[in-house]
Amino acid sequence: MSLTDLSAHELAERLHRREVSAVEAVQASLDRIAALEPSLGAFVTVTAEEAISEARDLDRRRAAGETLGPLAGVPMATKDNLATRGVRTTCASRMLERFVPPYDATVVARLRAAGLVSVGKANLDEFAMGSSTENSAFHPTRNPWDPERVPGGSSGGSAAAVAARMVPLATGSDTGGSIRQPAALCGVVGLKPTYGLVSRYGLVAFASSLDQVGPFATTVRDAALFLQVMAGPDPLDSTSIDRPVPDYAATLTEGIEGLRIGIIRELLGDGIAPDVQRAVLAAAETFRSLGAHVEEVSLPSSAHGIAAYYLVATAEASSNLARYDGVKYTMRADADDLTGMYFRTRAAGFGPEVKRRIMLGTYALSSGYYDAYYKKAQQVRTLIQRDYASAFSRFDLLLGPTTPGTAFRLGEKTGDPLEMYLSDVATVLANLAGIPALSLPGGFDAKGLPIGLHLQGPALSEATLLRAGHAFEQATDFHRRQPDLLAARA
Amino acid sequence: MPQYEAVIGLEVHVELATRTKIFCGCPAHFGAEPNRNVCPVCLGLPGSLPVLNEQVLEYAIRSGIALNGQIAERSKFDRKNYFYPDLPKGYQISQYDQPIMQRGWLEIETESGIRRIGITRIHMEEDAGKLVHQGAANLAGSSYSLVDLNRAGVPLCEIVSEPDLRTPEEARLYVQELRNVLVTIAVTDGKMEEGSLRCDVNVSLRPAGATELGTRTELKNINSFRSVQRALEYEIERQREVLEEGGRIVQETRTWSEERGVTVSMRSKEEAHDYRYFPEPDLPDLVVSPERIEQIRRSLPELPAARRERYRTVVGLPAYDAAVLTDNLDLARYFDEAIAGSQNPKAIANWLMGDVTAHLNAQKLTLAELPVTPAQLRRLVELIDQDVISGKIAKKVVGRMLETGRDPEVLVQELGLTQISDESAIQAAVAEVLAAHPSQVAEYRSGKTKVMGFLVGQVMRATQGRAKPDAVNRLVEEALAEPVSSGP
User: Is some CB atom of chain B closer than 8 A to the CB atom of A337?
Assistant: First the structure.
């Protein structure tokens, strides 16, 4: 068994016992990246030198008797929309191709301080806008289960890197499903925390009221340990929740006897692939067998989720991306005057999906249309929050599919943005409501592609979500299966 | 030809005197090398987030209360979206439909009495940076332009008046009084020439008595009280001419040229931006408790209107003195300290507004640099009132005090300037003077009593001004009234 086959906490234990050095762990990760990266394209930038140097430092400190954090020495990937001091942060956009931040995102700083070693910046859809990672300005990322298929998006690089065991952990960001959808399509665990649980400082903004940073891992336990390091109040983020973070690992194994789980009726019908529906129903049985009460529940306003999401998200994006104007960040197209410079820089620097969303959002905020679009979307958001509040008065968690189908082929949906947007139909609701949601491996379809189960809970219910996920994982072996990477290597 | 009436409203941007910027910890003061007082937040770098400086909120609430408005217990920030190279995020964080204060007012004292000017709102916002153009005065004509973001994120309050002002003079008085209030409550240094107070003026004309508003123009680049009035005088006259010639006012922004004394068209409103305001998702709603508002209200110092009233009714100053002292907060504070325990505040006011102010102006000093303490000035006035020195001598003493800052008592002793109140000494001087000027004495006695003034003057001169004037008067008169001594 190779070091890269270990889960993060297994690896951490060996590091702790000094059976393995951080340099060895990081080198194993870098070797696997070197072998698989040409066929997967999971990274924008691999920071081998920095990673080895950090690992060496950790080994020195451990040898000197210093007590390091529980995950110290474990390699990880960092989504390339999280600012990293001294390492370019591109958001997979030409616009930021040469942008090197002079600061670390709060999450990056916390992980670094805890001794996790970032081996590189993971690929994504440009500015996190997309559901397939095909919108990366540099190269698409491929799904380790089938290189002809997409890994999902926007955190496709992070998901593929973890699925291919290049790293046991990766950070992602989730605005409408960008952690959970690729986690589902790549057969790994992904969690979108409660809005405000993890600091957004240093996360390059897509839609500020929806964005959250969260973990990718191969097991629920790893996700819990990883989240533990990321979460917590941050004075640099006014929207971060000022409350101490519970010890997620402590309650992980308490079981789910008596837990009330609702299956979302609206997500078990038209538009959801039959294999996916079957997997959800099978999961419901597994939960019952573990002592949970499972019943159907309705979220009537969920039908409007996609429409509301694509108005709120694009409106905020149109404003957040205004700063890329050719004045800063080294990308500038020459022109005769200021307006010309703006037009040509933005025409050259942004890809088509980013432009589409800037235009949609600009329109939604325009004088005369604000009430009909942006304001209406915010009202729908309130309705969705009410639906959830009502559901959570009867249930502890809600169960459904993470995605309508399994991984699709590269190019399959790029011609039809609406079809692509519908990949997010199950995930956007949690962002609109600000609640946490977990995607975990829940089976495989007839083609052998992973299916993601989606568990949602009320605000700050991460401990319950992780406990339920862990119980499910203990009762199943979907998470143990790894993609056959001989195909990827070919 | 109809008579026209001007309708004027002002938007005043006040730079708040906080130590740090509105959304980050960078210093908010001017004068640093370009792009030194900056960080990822005020540079708007990707991923950075704003955190509200509590002092800014405190100052905005203080201003709102001092301007008699209603403080919103719940308000929020919004994004105002537009592109310009000095705006690092491509939007300005401001307040749109829920500002921190609404429905206030400020009273100004005009020649025709007190006028209450409505204040629509106060909102908080961040300032933009500054462009430095090479080869031209503006972006369009320059060979290149540099961006200095030291000012980006400096906190501003925008104070918007109702269109309640009717004359250029009222507009000037409004800005003066507004500045007075804001400096008194210590939310700004109020330096107009340094841009701490910036005025945008809206003005339109309508036939006198009409209720409908005419088309307005907006005047920018107004950097002094005087130019508020001058720019408005020019613009009202310009609009009047256009209307009288049957023309139509174009709604536009015009810039005031201080050198040429004219307003010049900048851009018309037809090209106006759609700012696409929406709530700032990076900042939670602002909630201010009634207790906090009350606590800030109680902490406010005496405001200018109340101070003027006190000077008139309690201290007993004429309205003019009350206004002059109140218009300068440092002077007013100095005065308040000087009159504490004094029997003669009017005399103190006279010295302050007279010799002291003249000295400060001549030496280009601020009151803080004045070596004379308020207590010393009070004691000087006491020396006069206790007849230790005369008013004339006091002028000499004040001159030395202003130069040296030494105690008036010491100076009087050292200079031998104590007033002579020993009547026998004065009598001797009187006798000498009368003996030396027999012809004037004769004139007096022949009925030309006006010559008495000359003789008193001679006695004062003989005593180097130290003789107590009323005693000299009395003794000269008595001596002249004495029977004529028989000649030799």
Answer: yes
